[in-house]
Amino acid sequence: MFPYLDDANCRGLDPELFYAESGAAIMKAKSLCAACPVREKCLEWAIKREEFGVWGGTTARERASLRRERGLRLVPAGVA
Fold first, then answer.
1. Would the pLDDT of 44 be above 70?
2. How far is CA 60 from CA 19, 33, 43, in A?
3. Residues with Cβ < 8 Å from 36, sequence gap 6 or more?
């Protein structure tokens, strides 16, 4: 589904890290994303399609703000 994830810093890590609710855990997830070679691709996908978690170094709230700035809406699950 995400061929670029083969090169991602999060590959092989527990996905729960990226869906944490505590500030410290969110900062850890964001720090992994910060140095990730595929961060931009991940972020662009997540802006359009992911409502929860840390993706591309951003939280759900940060992505919602980016969507508003760009005049975008979430693409419903199952829609290509």
1. yes
2. 10, 14, 11
3. 8, 9, 10, 42, 57
